[in-house]
Amino acid sequence: MIIDAHSHVHDPVADHVALLDEAGVDRAVLFPTRPHPERATDLAGLRREMAVLHRALEGAENGADGFARAWQELDAALAAYPDRFIGFGSVRLDSTPEDIAGAVARDVVGRGLHGIGELTPPPGGAAAVEPVLRAAHDHGGLPVVVHGSAPTTEPDLHTLARLSARYPSVPLVVSQVGGQHWMTAIELVRDTPNMYLELSTANIVFALRLAIREIPERTLFGSDAPYGDPVLARAMVERVTPSGEVRERVLGGNAAQLLGI
């Protein structure tokens, strides 16, 4: 089974399914999203959508209305394609620990979702993830996915590793190979047994090669669609791994084991 471990709700959802079909991907982890860059038809439209993304990554796009719309879109996508998508749910990191625990119980576990993410703490703010890890631990070790590229900083990655070590039953996935800090991300994930590294949107091919070589059992193929493309992301993984067990694990076996499917 080929599993894209990182994707966001598309508008329309059928376009996403068509991309998965073209890439030969059986299932995709699906996160709710507020920006929709795939809606843009020109540069001005893309700038508007990316501005929403940048505000979200900086912790400034946390209105209740935006979260509600994102949840509605996720619910609709999962209902339309239950055999293709593996739903994850996000929580507001600016909430109290008690509210975060309630949101995980209600909006993630209560909806029958498979994990929590993609979390986007502001730069320098990775410590805000700890109440989520605590709640994930309380619910049997739900996987937690955290944005790894900019504006995530190198100190943020170290913070995530320290927090992960406190909750060894919780799989913590760092996305986008850690962005420009990919060497640090590889080292931290390699040395923290419950951390995983998702491989989407890498712009340096040997970042993937070295990540897979160092952590073959905890690296995950992902596209970050619509920001990345499942066809290209799969081709890059296949380019840097020989056919056989390691490639199969990265393209889906590791994710299937992590998600219990």
UniProtKB/TrEMBL annotation:
Residue span(s) of domain Amidohydrolase-related: 3-261
Keyword Cell cycle among UniProt keywords: no
Organism domain of life: Bacteria
Transmembrane stretches, start-end: none
UniProt feature coiled coil, ranges: none
GO cellular component terms listed in the entry, alphabetical order: cytoplasm
Keywords: Hydrolase, Lyase
InterPro entries: ACMSD, Amidohydro-rel, Metal_Hydrolase
GO biological process: secondary metabolic process
GO molecular function, one term: carboxy-lyase activity
Protein name (record): Amidohydrolase family protein
Organism phylogeny: Bacteria, Bacillati, Actinomycetota, Actinomycetes, Kitasatosporales
